[in-house]
């Protein structure tokens, strides 16, 4: 489908590549198994299409959608994307694949490798993930080792749900909020992967442009955010926690009590339910996303600047206040240095969080693009120096991020290259994807490193170049 917005879209890394559009004709929902609560889809099936088919068949099943529902169910899972029901880890909730290898051979993984009776698909292909022998599915995610043409996805049986928001007035309570989330998530009291957002998002998700709130130069000042947030439904707060609980009404009521009590340690923390907020408040769109209904509301924050484009910086950080603060301080400092608005959204699990920064910039301004790219580059380097690495990145930063995973003299990349060369000896499939270059490209300076990222914005240095 190619909706990987913020991570490079459909752009191939090597100029002159042929882009294979799997969304146009490979868009069949091959099976929905209501008893097994699973489906088998081709790459062109969008979240909306799968949702609508389940509704059409009146099945009591949920899909799990990312914040924007226009993308490919398979594409998002293969890029290890996230959603917000209890099935939010999309790759962890896939079950079985069919893959076209670079030599044209067709491979089925998991139980799919064992033919079913009379040539049918194996009846447990979408039931048991690893099957027998090495579990190979992982090497086809975020890689260039094959084209996945079918994927099994688990669906969640529908259940009662209650979304809520908790607001925190003080900026400096951020590490303590993270400390409180950790045990709640580890004990599985939190129903889904909650989002912790900075209050700037309350302004941005109104879909109003930044110029409505601040018309001066540079990033919107904290005082301007405060002044305008005070007029919005959540008021003059600093951090906003969006969560959802699942179960029957009595169980949800108990869960909310535990959560309310835990966060009451933060001065001024306040829990609100959808009925406490106006119908156009963003919490109502979270109710949809967190109960498996795809929406597009999240795109609203791209109205922030004219001609908006965005980059995601997505390091994995331990769910610990002190680590969260280290990354937050890096991000705050570098955004200020490069004159960019800081728009963080943290997806917080029990042991790690995806600390996601949305850099929104005017793509018609080369200066803004260069500042956004420089900020990304410096955040990647500084975070890596502290031991924090990105879980996913824009194609422009693939070499840089891959280079940070360099333990044991780049043992991981050498392993990936060995697999790449064995499966794709001619190096035809997505060269450079996730920093993995086939043999015929290596040592020729194809990588984009350091300040070459900014030059690449003007189309310079994307191809091979001499290196000292
Ligand atoms: C406002 C906003 C909010 C977002 N929120 C989220 C979010 O909550 N969670 C999230 O995960 N993302 C989010 N994103 C990022 C992105 O838009 C989504 O992840 C989107 O679902 C990805 O696009 P897609 O599903 O069409 O995947 P694609 O673009 O189709 O696929 C992603 C990548 O996977 C590889 N790939 C795709 N298909 C295959 C295949 N058949 N075989 C092998 N490799 C393949 C390709 O390299 C491709 O670039 C957000 C983006 C925006 C703009």
Description:
The chain is globular and about 60 Å long. Strands 8, 9, 10, 11, 12, 13, 14, 15 and 16 form a nine-stranded antiparallel sheet that branches. A five-stranded antiparallel sheet has the order 1-2-6-4-5. It has 468 residues and is α+β, with helices and mostly antiparallel strands. The protein folds into three domains: 136 residues, Uridine Diphospho-n-acetylenolpyruvylglucosamine Reductase, domain 3 (2-Layer Sandwich), CATH 3.30.465.10; 236 residues, Vanillyl-alcohol Oxidase, Chain A, domain 3 (3-Layer(aba) Sandwich); 58 residues, Vanillyl-alcohol Oxidase, Chain A, domain 4 (Orthogonal Bundle), CATH 1.10.45. The chain is built from 13 helices and 16 strands. The structure holds flavin-adenine dinucleotide. InterPro entries: Cytok_DH_C_sf, FAD-bd_oxidored_4_C, FAD-bd_PCMH, FAD-bd_PCMH-like_sf, FAD-bd_PCMH_sub1, FAD-bd_PCMH_sub2, FAD-linked_Oxase-like_C, Oxid_FAD_bind_N. This is FAD-binding PCMH-type domain-containing protein. Keywords: FAD, Flavoprotein, Oxidoreductase.
Number of helices: 13
| Total separate domains | 3
Please tell me the CATH architecture of the largest domain by its name: 3-Layer(aba) Sandwich
Radius of gyration: 22 Å
Oligomeric organization of the protein chains: single chain
The helix-and-strand class reads alpha+beta
**What is the global morphology?**
globular
Largest sheet: 9 strands, antiparallel
Highest CATH level, the class of the largest domain: Alpha Beta
Total beta strand runs: 16
Which parts are unreliable, with pLDDT below 50 for 5 consecutive residues or more?
none
Strand content: 15-25%
Bin the helical content: 25-40%
Ligands bound to this protein structure: flavin-adenine dinucleotide
As for the CATH topology of the largest domain, it is Vanillyl-alcohol Oxidase, Chain A, domain 3
Query: What is the CATH superfamily label of the largest domain?
Result: FAD-linked oxidases, C-terminal domain
Measure the end-to-end span.
39 Å
Mean pLDDT: 96
GO molecular function, one term: FAD binding
Cofactor: FAD
Organism: Thermothielavioides terrestris (strain ATCC 38088 / NRRL 8126) (Thielavia terrestris)
Keywords: FAD, Flavoprotein, Oxidoreductase
